[in-house]
Amino acid sequence: MEARLNLMASPVAAKAFKQIVAAGHALGESGLPFATREFVNLRVSQINGCAGCVDMHTKELAHAGESAVRINLVAAWREATVFSEAERAALELAEQGTRIADAAGGVPDEVWENAAKHYDEEQLAALVAQIAIINAFNRGNVMTRQPAGDYRVGQYR
């Protein structure tokens, strides 16, 4: 597959996406565990069909020492026994936050309240930002048909 557009070759798009990358890096200071952030990124990317981001986040998780079982079961996390209750709450919030167009009322209160049981306000803020950021990346990549498979761990740090 060939990309429709090289976003990083456009001065305007490159500048915008570099700011989004910087926003994502800032979330590393939130206290939200790296694995949780990456599992959220992976699940949202799966939902949105963003092959480039699926490639990236599976490789980042593997490099960080996550097991192939946990990485592979993100797509079926509800039935999997390998995720903590906190991770499950983050994945549910990520799914609901990604699919807001499918639900008339947005993210249901019970989903938010469950996440709030496991994460403090700073971590919840980071989760909301993480979900928004990965959705932005997914949409840009999917619209421009960015190919997948060549990502190298740490490539965008």
UniProtKB/TrEMBL annotation:
Q: Which residues form the Carboxymuconolactone decarboxylase-like domain?
A: 16-95
Q: Where are the transmembrane segments?
A: none
Tell me the leader sequence span: none
**What InterPro entries would the database entry show?**
AhpD-like, AhpD_core, CMD-like
Question: What is the protein named?
Answer: Carboxymuconolactone decarboxylase family protein
